[in-house]
Amino acid sequence: MPQKIIILDFGSQTTQLIARRVREMDTFCEILPYNKFPHDDPSVIGVILSGSPFSVYDAEAFSIDLQHIRGRYPILGICYGAQFMAHTYGGKVEPAGSREYGRACLTHIDATNPLFAGFDVRSQVWMSHGDTITALPSHFKRIASTEKVENAAYQAEGEPLWGVQFHPEVFHSTQGSLLLRNFVIGICGSRQEWSAASFVDSTVAQLKAQLGDDRVILGLSGGVDSSVAAVLLNKAIGSRLTCIFVDHGMLRKDEAADVLRDYESLGLNVKAVDASEKFFSDLAGVTDPEQKRKIIGRDFVEVFNAEAQKVEGAKWLAQGTIYPDCIESLNITGKVIKSHHNVGGLPEKMHLSLCEPLRWLFKDEVRRVGRQLGMPEHLITRHPFPGPGLAVRILGEVTPERVRILQEADHIYIQGLRHYKITLPATEARQRLSAGHPATLQESGEVSVSLYDLVWQAGTILLAEVRSVGVMGDERTYEHPVALRAVTSTDAMTADWAHLPYDFMAKVSNDIINHVRGVNRVCYDISSKPPSTIEWE
Ligand code: XMP
Questions:
Q1: Ligand 1 and 294: CB distance under 6 A
Q2: CB distance 338 to ligand 1 below 6 Å
Q3: Fold match between 4-187 and 196-380?
Q4: Which CATH number does the domain 196-380 belong to among 3.30.70.1520, 3.40.50.620, 1.20.120.1810, 3.40.50.1820?
Q5: Cα–Cα distances in Å, from 387 out to 111, 249, 504?
Q6: Domain extent listing, the chain
Q7: Is 499's C-beta closer than 6 angstroms to any atom of ligand 1?
Q8: 394-524: in CATH 3.30.300.10
Q9: Pairwise CA distance, residues 156 & 140, whole Å
Q10: Measured in angstroms, how far is the CA atom of residue 338 from the centroid of ligand 1?
Q11: C-alpha distances in angstroms, 57 versus 15, 34, 156, 274?
């Protein structure tokens, strides 16, 4: 069992980021709700307490008894985690004179403290808090301050217990990764054994033991997650894995044929079902986004189920569920923003046991595992694509003709992103590309990178119910606009619009309007998430 760090989640938006930083140090970690510490797990080597939207004085604030954790494991409290421990052990936490968000500079650090090993004085840190620790418990010592925050970091004297008021996990804390490294490796003693190779070896062995001679069914979507899950299972159980690929007719241009060719070359046993007629006929006349999603979800289950029945003796349903899909995050608001259908739904109806070999991995890690398994790079770096496909990128009724128009426009855009290269210093490429991307392997100098690889996700949206006037040659046109969307993100929870070069946008716009009949205007979506979402529906 690999060593692990436990991150107790008090509801902060950046809890997942802490986990990603720890994993980047080749160390396994788990996010658990603040009150679910695994007391019997011998592989735990350290504990991190996350931030929280609450103040320690709020009636609903989350609280935990640290009695059996303190002294047994090194602890690092971040923001609320630090305030909570200071408050619990007799210090004073008070509302800050002014709420502090954004950059701050460390003005003092105790450079001899192991948490700050190798730190520069005046390192930039990122603050986001309404309360501040005005007095430390008597046996705690201050180890860092900023101009406004006297107790920016502390340690309980003679004990492996630290608190930091700032957020080392966010990119803007310039030495935040170093601080976490000092904690995870220097203090907790991580042996850094968590790697793609070790994951593949141990998972294949586990799958063999778990599945024995059973038959397994897996739904392939063409996306990275289900493809990597399939190749991993194929390595473990070979032909006892049957993959089902449902083509609902709303994939990207030529995508169904392309991915099937890839799957064949990977030696996967795939059954492809073209169910596009059924999907189009059930979607006829439907314009409401949630209604569309429900119909597609229902039809998918129906078609998939019918195909799965044909696989005799299947006992397992494998899914490419990844960690962000299943972290039991503290849902403070309890509101559903959009219904997603990639988790749950299928197994209950099918009486199959669930097998999710990627459920501990972040997207970047899935990609690394894919590379480890020798999968082609274009399959590994493929952008995420929503299950309901282009149906949620056509605003209005979905018809085969509208899908065709959108496929053509989108193809020009995506091919353009793939072909447009920019040159970056290797250090910047490492920051902007997903971990393990071939261009990140170069230590210094410059690398050439495509816009496609620099963005998290891109796609085209057809405003099918809107028409505007244009002029082409001597003719007046009255056709649809398309919107181009490209975002940068690390996990799709938050996203920013990508700042694509103007010359690129000019060319794509020109190519789309000149080549795609039915489109006479191209817009670029400059909304971030939140408040918008990545998909339009
Ligand atoms: P939103 O639009 O919620 O999307 O910001 C976040 C990420 O999820 C993808 N997405 C889906 N993926 N089934 C999926 O498998 C769905 O129904 C679905 N809806 C959105 C979206 O493309 C983005 O990557």
A1: no
A2: yes
A3: yes
A4: 3.40.50.620
A5: 50, 12, 28
A6: 4-187, 196-380, 394-524
A7: no
A8: yes
A9: 4
A10: 9
A11: 21, 17, 22, 58
Q: Letter for the amino acid at 9?
A: D
CB 165 within 8 A of CB 149: yes
Tokens of 457: 């996700």
Ligand 1 and 537: CB distance under 6 A: no
C-beta of residue 8 within 8 angstroms of C-beta of residue 48: yes
As averages over each run of 10 residues, the pLDDT of the chain (537 residues) reads: 93 90 94 94 98 93 95 97 98 85 90 95 87 96 94 97 96 91 98 95 96 97 96 98 98 97 97 98 98 96 95 95 76 47 55 93 93 95 96 98 98 98 93 84 92 97 98 94 95 90 98 97 95 95
Ligand 1 atom nearest to 223, measured from its CA? 15
> Can you tell me the distance from the alpha carbon of 266 to that of 203, in angstroms, rounded to the nearest whole number?
19
Catalytic residue among 87, 129, 167, 480: 167
Q: Give CATH superfamily name and number for 4-187.
A: Class I glutamine amidotransferase (GATase) domain (3.40.50.880)
- For the question of residue 326 being annotated catalytic, the response is no
* Cα–Cα separations (whole angstroms), residue 186 to 25, 189, 228: 12, 6, 33
Distance of CA 99 to the CA centre of its chain: 29
Three-state DSSP string of 252-289: CCCHHHHHHHHHHHCCCCEEEEECHHHHHHHHCCCCCH
- Catalytic member of 30, 100, 169, 537: 169
Residue 533 beta carbon below 6 angstroms from any ligand 1 atom: yes
141 forms bridges with which residues in the sheet?
Answer: 155
Return the residue whose CA atom lies nearest to atom 4 of ligand 1.
Answer: 534
Q: How remote is the CA of residue 340 from the centroid of ligand 1, in Å?
A: 7
From the CB of residue 319, how many other CB atoms can be counted at a distance below 10 Å?
23
Ligand 1 centroid distance, CA of 96 (Å): 38
User: Ligand 1 within 6 A of 36 CB?
Assistant: no
